[in-house]
């Protein structure tokens, strides 16, 4: 077995001794669980829609090495490169997001995807991590120089992004982006009165979505009263957790996935509940908690406001996305089509998450006793 010494000056050696290894181990475990669950959950879904059993497995496994390479490459970069990379990719993502209204493929009544030869891209997935880093830079620059309108630019960019997401419509994505942005402006030292005002505006916006968007109204009504509409998927999801018990039926031995339409994506946590059991599900929750908590702890002594806000935003985004997916599967909140990071099937989601976690690892790296410059 090869040992990596602290004196190792190779690229990997420098990375290994400066990155947060607990976070790396947790991410590797999450990716491993994702591979197992994809093999278990996706074949029945593929067969139901007339594809070969391993169709989704092959597509995801082709992208997995690319995602791992993205995590490693991006995590090598210093914060200044992360900032520039986020700005460039955010600009491209916003352009692609706007193009969804012109050339986007309509799926289940929403235009969120752009079809390219051999693949489809969901631009909003890439907007999430890049906007978090961009907002961190704008707020940090606004604090550093009173003449730089960082806060105003951030508010404007946020309003434009949310408006575009709601037009698709994708309320869930808009809520995640809004929650991350709110956390960042709160940490940046926003006056408490404005925090209350913005919180009230957010709640007002959610109420407006409930009143004006039929699909939101339906989902919330079904959450409050299952008899108010079709609750087939969530009923099967709860049944899967009940069948799994403490230790599960074993990988590949579940049956609910044979009837659960989105077993490989939005409801993969339910498949994990049936096949791996409660203990394993709690372990998955712990893995995400390790990534979020370790990332936050790594920047508690950081002097750069940009690094603090960017790392906090990216960690919040990852944790919130995981919470939304798992809570939806457990009927703790209205169902929302959002992937479980690195576990659900989804190419755009995996690559965007790889970008986000790579930036998170880069921002929390240490060198010579301090955060890397």
TrEMBL record:
Q: What is its EC number?
A: 2.4.99.28
Per the record, the domain of life is Bacteria
Provide the reaction this enzyme catalyses.
Answer: [GlcNAc-(1->4)-Mur2Ac(oyl-L-Ala-gamma-D-Glu-L-Lys-D-Ala-D-Ala)](n)-di-trans,octa-cis-undecaprenyl diphosphate + beta-D-GlcNAc-(1->4)-Mur2Ac(oyl-L-Ala-gamma-D-Glu-L-Lys-D-Ala-D-Ala)-di-trans,octa-cis-undecaprenyl diphosphate = [GlcNAc-(1->4)-Mur2Ac(oyl-L-Ala-gamma-D-Glu-L-Lys-D-Ala-D-Ala)](n+1)-di-trans,octa-cis-undecaprenyl diphosphate + di-trans,octa-cis-undecaprenyl diphosphate + H(+)
Q: Entry's InterPro entries?
A: FtsW (IPR013437), FtsW/RodA (IPR001182)
Name a single GO cellular component: plasma membrane
The alphabetized UniProt keywords are: Cell cycle, Cell division, Cell membrane, Cell shape, Cell wall biogenesis/degradation, Glycosyltransferase, Membrane, Peptidoglycan synthesis, Transferase, Transmembrane, Transmembrane helix
Its transmembrane ranges are 22-41, 62-79, 85-105, 148-166, 173-203, 276-297, 304-323, 343-363
Localization in the cell: Cell membrane
- Recorded GO MF terms: lipid-linked peptidoglycan transporter activity; peptidoglycan glycosyltransferase activity
Q: What class of enzyme is it?
A: transferase
Family (UniProt): Belongs to the SEDS family. FtsW subfamily.
- Its recorded name reads Probable peptidoglycan glycosyltransferase FtsW
